[in-house]
């Protein structure tokens, strides 16, 4: 069924009240193919909506929103060392993580509580606390928008990078991800080297952690720093951490000795949150928007912001980081 004039406020974590002219909720590949082939909808602009957690909507959508609600989690194969778990793209990511932890499938515990749906995870190669989706990714299925044909993509086809994949670049707007298959370990290989996790486990008095313990530590850290979108609209990190030439990093370090920098190949990854905080934005309220008081990289909607206001704030922040450090920030969120 096609709905008309739908407010997208409940469907984007910034809580922006934009309207969609038309919306179709799809629960299966055949229902998706039917919508794609519908002659009456052929001329409508198409917009694919997942969990809406990495999205800044600055205007109404004068076309067809296809809301991906393909559900289901299944263990499709098992070897001596691995479980292969397939999830519908419309499953809430954190629910998949909880399911895997409950069944002893290891590898995504560090990715607990990341907002959004499973389909968006490969799109931007989600990552946190030293783990990225690509580390556990096996394959995905996606439906081509123009033909309705289902195609399989292996890891190499996805061209994963830092918050990047082929679906954000070359194939942008061409495929709808329908399911994702992860290769998860039977024996946990904990990645707790990311400082904050070790500290949190210590605080919890845990010396030999289980999957659930690591997940809980991550949840505690995230909840202490990142605002809950149900309470305060946001989309997690608004910008990417910029990767710059190491020579530039050394130059900046000479002027700003406390600047964080992490090796990224022969380049250096800077902490966008630190750069933004140094420019005085952390905790600052600008109209209905602001940079979060506990994590400057997160922009928030204090209630009645429009997407344009948030976009304008992001422009101001980018300009001041550029003026102060000569570093160009890039948005992580998708702007429409
Ligand atoms: N920092 C500041 N001020 C701030 C925020 C951070 O000085 O307001 C400094 C911290 O002190 C630290 C460094 O920046 O030295 C890095 O901070 P943090 O560990 O909080 O992580 P991040 O680089 O800001 C990234 C991801 C997050 C992910 C965390 C944990 C990006 C764009 N963001 O943030 O991902 O949860 O690491 O792994 O890579 C997201 O993508 O939406 C997201 C939340």
Structure commentary:
The protein is α+β, with helices and mostly antiparallel strands and 336 residues long. It has three domains: 2-68, Uridine Diphospho-n-acetylenolpyruvylglucosamine Reductase, domain 2; 73-225, Uridine Diphospho-n-acetylenolpyruvylglucosamine Reductase, domain 3, CATH 3.30.465; 233-335, UDP-N-acetylenolpyruvoylglucosamine reductase, C-terminal domain (Uridine Diphospho-n-acetylenolpyruvylglucosamine Reductase, domain 1, Alpha-Beta Complex). It has nine helices and 20 strands. The protein has a five-stranded antiparallel β-sheet. It starts with a strand and ends with a strand. The relative contact order is 0.13.
* Mean pLDDT value: 96
Most strands sheet: 5 strands, antiparallel
Order of neighbouring strands in the sheet with most strands: 6-7-12-10-11
CATH top level assignment of the largest domain: Alpha Beta
Helix content: 25-40%
Unreliable spans? none
């Amino acid at each position: 069924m096609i709905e008309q004039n739908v407010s997208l406020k409940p469907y984007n974590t910034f809580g922006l009240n934009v309207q969609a002219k038309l919306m179709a909720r799809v629960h299966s590949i055949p229902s998706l193919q039917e919508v794609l082939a519908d002659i009456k909808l052929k001329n409508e602009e198409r917009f694919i909506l997942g969990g809406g957690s990495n999205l800044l909507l600055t205007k109404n959508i004068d076309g067809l929103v296809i809301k991906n609600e393909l559900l289901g989690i299944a263990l499709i194969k098992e070897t001596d060392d691995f479980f292969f778990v397939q999830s519908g793209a419309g499953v809430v990511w954190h629910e998949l993580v909880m399911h895997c932890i409950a069944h002893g499938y290891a590898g995504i515990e560090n990715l607990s509580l990341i907002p959004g749906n499973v389909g968006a995870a490969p799109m931007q190669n989600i990552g946190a606390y030293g783990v990225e989706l690509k580390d556990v990714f096996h394959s995905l299925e996606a439906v081509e928008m123009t033909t309705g044909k289902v195609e399989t993509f292996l890891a190499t086809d996805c061209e994963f990078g830092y918050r990047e994949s082929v679906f954000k670049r070359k194939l942008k707007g061409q495929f709808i991800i329908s399911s994702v298959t992860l290769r998860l370990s039977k024996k946990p290989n904990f990645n707790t080297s990311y400082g904050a996790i070790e500290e949190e486990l210590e605080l919890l008095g845990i010396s030999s952690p289980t999957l659930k313990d690591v997940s809980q530590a991550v949840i505690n850290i995230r909840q202490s720093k990142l605002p809950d979108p149900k309470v305060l609209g946001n989309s997690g990190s608004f910008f990417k951490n910029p990767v710059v030439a190491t020579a530039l990093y050394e130059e900046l370090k000479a002027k700003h000795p406390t600047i964080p920098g992490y090796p990224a190949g022969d380049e250096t990854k800077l902490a966008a949150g630190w750069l933004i905080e140094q420019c005085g934005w952390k905790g600052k309220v600008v109209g209905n928007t602001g940079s979060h008081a506990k994590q400057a990289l997160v922009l928030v909607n204090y209630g009645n912001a429009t997407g344009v206001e948030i976009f304008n704030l992001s422009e101001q922040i980018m300009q001041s980081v550029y003026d102060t450090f000569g570093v160009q920030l890039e948005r992580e969120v998708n702007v429409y």
